[in-house]
Structure formats: structure tokens, C-alpha cells
Amino acid sequence: MCNVLIVAFNNEKTVVRLLESLEAHRRFIRKVVFVDNGSTDATVEIARGLTIGYELNIIESINTGFAGGYASASAGVLDADLPTLCLNPDVELAEDSVVLLLEALNSRLDLGIATVPLVGQDGTEDSASRRTLPQLGSSALYGILGKIVPRNLRYNNGSADSSKKLATLQDGTAVNQIQATTGALMMIRPSFRPGNAPIFDTDYWMYGEDLQLCLDAATEGYTVGIVEARPSLHLKGASSGWPRSRASHRAFHDALYIYYSKNLRTSALQSYAVHAGVELRFWATLLGGNLVRRLRG
Are 175 and 167 in contact (CB under 8 A)? Predict the structure, then answer.
């Protein structure tokens, strides 16, 4: 059994697919806590109107960001000894995902975070499913040069550290080690982060908190694993949009600097240089995003 936590913002187009996909897993679900972060569309009304066979607790809140929304969701968790499945509202779970994730946690006591592959509508695997933890040099190159940087230097390189097998499940499914994954779909061991306490670092508003959690897992002696099962669907950008809104674009760049400050900073001079670089990237890419919007009409 597990608790499921979902944080939504203006997800009326995707919330039905997510909540209905949970129906197939309901015998493994203790409770679903659904936090609405101040949606201005019909997300809450649609969620309330669904006929579902599991317990759904809807909490309406102001927009406190991704990590803040999960902190609000923790108040609705009654059994903190169960694993927590964190799901984005733009995910559609594949069959058997939940039971395989639970089996993976049972197979390895040091497995702190488990996930399954995510794919987009075109069937291409989401590069955020398998990530490396950011390093300053390669991240700076990627931030400046973008996708012309060789794939092996990107933190979202899609295949990092997934060659080490952690376990084999009863049906033969492999569980492989990765450095990091996306907060869109994570099952978390309660001894690492109990569901009735904040899971993600609330210094992050949106973006970066999942990478921080994966780094914290490694620091605390846990591993991150991917269950090589049937992939689930991830409709990226449902909340933040693409190009990103100015607010989410700002949050993304703030997260870059927060992650650096917490984990990679070595000197004050370096910190000033990194901050300046992040700000320069923010303004340059903001102008580029605005141009794309104008061209789209």
C-alpha cells in the first residue's frame, strides 16, 4: 500500500486521465491527497466530479509552488509508515506501475526513491526520467550552449548510471540504478522521507527540488532506481506552459542558483560569477521566449 500525493495548477485538460489511471491501482492505494495550488480553471470541479473507487482528499490552497504544495499535501497523510507516490497532474500511469514500484522498494532496503520510465505523446522517453546530478562545469556549458553540448555532458542525458542492476522483480523486471529522476513520478521510502512531513526542499519554488531530493538521498545513504517496466505517459508543460511563463521561467533560473548555492559553491567570487551568469541566461532566454510567442501570434 502507498499514499499518493498530487499537486495541481490549472490542469483541467489532464486531471481526468491521471485520476482515472489510478483506478487500476486502487487496491494498492491507501489515500490520494490532491492539492490544488490556486487554479483559475475547472481543475477542482472536474476532480470532484469524477466517480472513483479510492479515497480522494482535495485540499484547496494558494499557489505555494511545487515543494510548498507537497508540504501542504503532507497534512492529509494519516499513515506515515507507507511509501509516498508523488505524481504530476499531467502523468497517466501505466498498468502495474504501482505494484512494481512497491515491490522494488521491498526488494532493496537502501532504495530511497523509485520511478518508472516516462514517455511523451510521441513515445520518446522523457530525458528527465534518467538524469545525472548537475556538476558546475558541464551544467554551465549546457546552460550557455544548450543542445549542441555533447549528450554525455548534460545532466538530463537519458542514460546515466542505468547499467548497474539493483534487483530483479518476480516477473523478471529489472530495477537499475540512476543518479536522479524527475519529481513527476517518484515513489519514496518512508524511512527516507515520511509522507506526513515535507518531502521536497521548500527553498525551491518550482524546478530543482527533485534533483535536490535525489542528491539528499545519496548523501543519506540511499539509492535511486528505475523499474524498467512499461512506461507511463508524461504530458510535459501542462502547468508551466511552453515557452514558460515569466513566473515559471524566473523560478527555473532561481532553482539553478539555489542548487548551486546549496551543493556546488566553493567561494564568494565564484558565487558572484555564477549568479551573474544565471541572470544573463534568464534575460537572454526570456527575450527568446517572448519572440516565439509573438511569432505564434
Answer: yes
| Most confidently modeled range among 9-23, 137-151, 231-245, 281-295 | 9-23
Quick check: helix, strand or coil at residue 26? Answer: helix
Residue identified by cell 548497474 is 164
Task: Give 233's strand partners.
Answer: 92, 119
The 8-class DSSP code of residue 95 comes to T
Residue 270 in grid coordinates:
565564484
**Taking the domain 2-239, which CATH number applies?**
3.90.550.10
Per-residue pLDDT band for 16 (boundaries 50, 70, 90) equals very high
Q: How far apart are CA 177 and CA 107, in angstroms?
A: 13
Residue 4 pairs in a beta bridge with 32, 85
Burial of 226 (0-12, 13-18, 19+ CB in 10 A): buried
The per-residue pLDDT for range 183-237, each reduced to its tens digit, is: 999 999 999 999 999 999 999 999 999 999 999 999 999 999 999 999 999 997 6
| Domain limits, the chain | 2-239
What grid cell was written down for 50? 469524477
Asked if 229 contacts 93 with a C-beta cutoff of 8 angstroms, the reply is no
Sheet architecture: strand order including 91-92: 91-92, 232-234, 118-119
List alpha helices for 146-245, DSSP H: 209-219
pTM for the full model?
Answer: 0.91
8 A C-beta contact, residue 198 and residue 205: no
Backbone region of residue 284 per phi and psi (left: phi > 0; alpha: psi in -120 to 50; beta: other values):
alpha
Mean pLDDT (whole number) for 68-72? 97
